[in-house]
Design brief:
By secondary structure, the protein is mostly helical. It is built from 4 helices and no strands. The radius of gyration is 17 Å and the shape is elongated. The mean pLDDT is 85.
């Protein structure tokens, strides 16, 4: 799912299409074999969204710091 987010995919189907189109490169991305859409769908249903909370908070903090820096540089 991280692959879908990073590559700005709009749906699970879009993510799967992109993975299948680049199946020869997935090993180098650390993904291994492309799994089925139903497997990813089931994993999504069972995975708690809280696993992304720490990452989201880290990214928000970095964005705040960049914003402060930008304001200081512009002024």
């Amino acid at each position: 799912m991280a692959f879908g987010q990073i590559t700005n995919r709009e749906s699970l189907s879009d993510t799967m299409l992109c993975l299948k189109a680049n199946a020869d490169k997935t090993y180098h991305l650390g993904i291994g074999e492309v799994v089925s859409k139903s497997t990813l769908s089931t994993a999504n249903e069972n995975r708690s969204s809280l696993i992304y909370f720490d990452l989201a908070m880290l990214l928000i903090e970095q964005a705040k710091q960049l914003y402060i820096w930008l304001i200081l540089v512009v002024n």
